[in-house]
Here is the input.
Amino acid sequence: MNKQVVKVLLPLRLDEPFDYVAPEVLQPGSVVQVPLGNRKSFGVVWPDSTPCNLPIDRIKPVLAHYDCPAIPQVSLDFVDWASEYTLAPKGLFLRMMIPMEDGLHSNKAIPLYDLYELKGRITPQRQQVVDYLTEHPCRSVEDIEEATSVSRAVINGMIKAELLTIKDFREEACPFQMPDVNQSGPTLNDSQQVAADRLIQRVKDHQFSATLLDGVTGSGKTEVYYEAILEALKQGKQSLVMLPEIALSTQWLQRFEERFGVKPAIWHSELTSAQRRITWRAIVEGKAPVVVGARSALFLPYPKLGLIIVDEEHDGSYKQEEQVIYNARDMAVVRAQIGNLPCVLASATPSLETMINVQTAKYDVLHLESRFGGATMPDVHVVDLRTAKSKKEVSSQKWLAEDLRQALAETVERGEQAMLFLNRRGYAPLTLCSDCGERLKCVNCDSWLVHHQNSTKLQCHHCGYFSSLPNQCPGCEEKDTWVACGPGVERIAEEAQSFLPKARLGILTSDTMNTPKKMAEIIGQIQDHQLDVLVGTQIMAKGYHFPKLTFVGVVDADISLSNGDLRAAEKTYQLLHQVAGRSGRGELPGHVWLQTYSPENPVMQAICKGQRDQFLAIESEERKSHGFPPFGRLISIIISGKHRYDVENAAKALARVFPHNESVQLMGPSPAAIAFLRGHTRWRLLVKSNRRYPLQKFVKSWLSQVELKSNLRLKIDVDPYNFM
Ligand code: ADP
Ligand code: ZN
Here is the structure.
């Protein structure tokens, strides 16, 4: 037998593959099972030519070769690249590529059940199963569950009690079908057609390209990129569409199904383990023609990928902040480059990064000028909260100015829908004692507890800690002295209800829409006009299309302008634009009301006058003058731990050994903006260089000089997006 040493990468926090011996030659990408300590793990044979120093008889053997297609070479290259760029271990990328072991086995045989013996007590629930199987013999547990209203536990109980028995098996079928590529979509208008033609050509080119699809909300970007998907389908290629918060994108999925007649494969963190296994297997076998996913879908092993679309490319949720820290929007472009395929970035408010790539001709651009079907952009009205009139109207108990109230009331009277936007969950962001000023703070974090009315609980929005409102103030021991300060959405809803007693109000936040099902329910209620006024956070800002929604009131347009984030202005602009874009999407014209203390701020000016590109030009100059991204590069380092002094000492030790280098600048060390989080102290160091400097290499060599105590955590964030 000709034994071979192979390198196998394991799905662990490891950068290098391990050596194993295999009885035969194994191609890179083969998925194998290997021993790891006293357990077994799957791993992927990795292309790596570093010689092995151990004698062959001391190397552990490969135990088995999974019955699974090999991971394509492009996917292996992508992991190597992404790991080098983000400084995160390769093994963690592998874990995103193969997030479960059970998908590696070939398709399962699914047992089909039939009635066996009717004995014992037949509850009404069990009777439902009996009735169903009498009419439809030989069904799987899933079939029974779907057709009756009975839970899986009841069915399993019946199997255990031998009321049901296995009669036969069925091969698990791939649930994803090929759409009919000959069915035609809507007739595109001229600028849509030009854009669609160009994207179709890109798909036919089989080459890398990056294209920004730039068009206002409602201009038909989705219809246009559907045409590119159609072309990829014709070419027998897979398409990946990335959406922010896919678990909540019910409207998008409905539309896809209407257009293509089949459901796409969906990938996000809330899939059940069975859905995950089946979807993964279909993807790696090339049987999922269109995959719609959150950022994690990017690392799946597509054998025939022919197109990537990143919708709402500017969206902050493409940045993953935990475990492996990466920006899926940027990585999508890299994946397209490695795989020689087109990538399309779609947005009405492209990120400055992307705009600069367009200006320097790295990316192509396609414009959709206006809203489809003559729908117009909304009028913007500004409420200057500094004027005497506003000061009288907006006080410590009221947050909606008179003009806004009136316009809102008129909207509801006309039978149209309205939205009030405030990016703050709960009733009030701060609760304090009116006697001594004591504020209720989280025990684990540097943050105030937020009062949620529905739960009568105070909650920390960072760590989830909650407590009930204490009877007496822990500071002065007085009773009944708590006052709520400032508004959250619940309080705004209360205010709106006070002058619109008959209006049907809905509060739309991640608290009320925390599952895809609840989300779909509420979206349905809005579509059916069972709600008149929506009071929502940014969860409502994205993507939705409600033709009857004609009024948007932004309660506090300044909220995110001053949070010490270098992208604060850009993010505020994007958010306000997206929120404003919810109104007037049908035949009725839309109105937007912005309440602000800084009407002269370039962000407000740009929103009012619809001058996006002027705003981006100002913002771009601002960043350039500071050498901030996209004109410079940043890597952020956060050290955290339970012991304050250990954290501080480690941060200072790192700063002491910072190599002198003219191209690189160190900012910090200093306590992070949230200096105490989930019981951990946090210190930050920020490293800055010019665009072209190989900053990762520099940081890697610098960090290797200090050995951190094992009770400390080091987080490296390349291209940071969050500065908290
Ligand atoms: P965007 O993605 O740019 O926000 P959408 O693709 O969602 O825009 O289009 C907005 C609305 O207009 C959708 O309801 C869409 O179905 C409709 N629409 C866009 N283009 C066309 C077209 N050519 N024919 C018919 N309806 C269209
Ligand atoms: Zn907390």
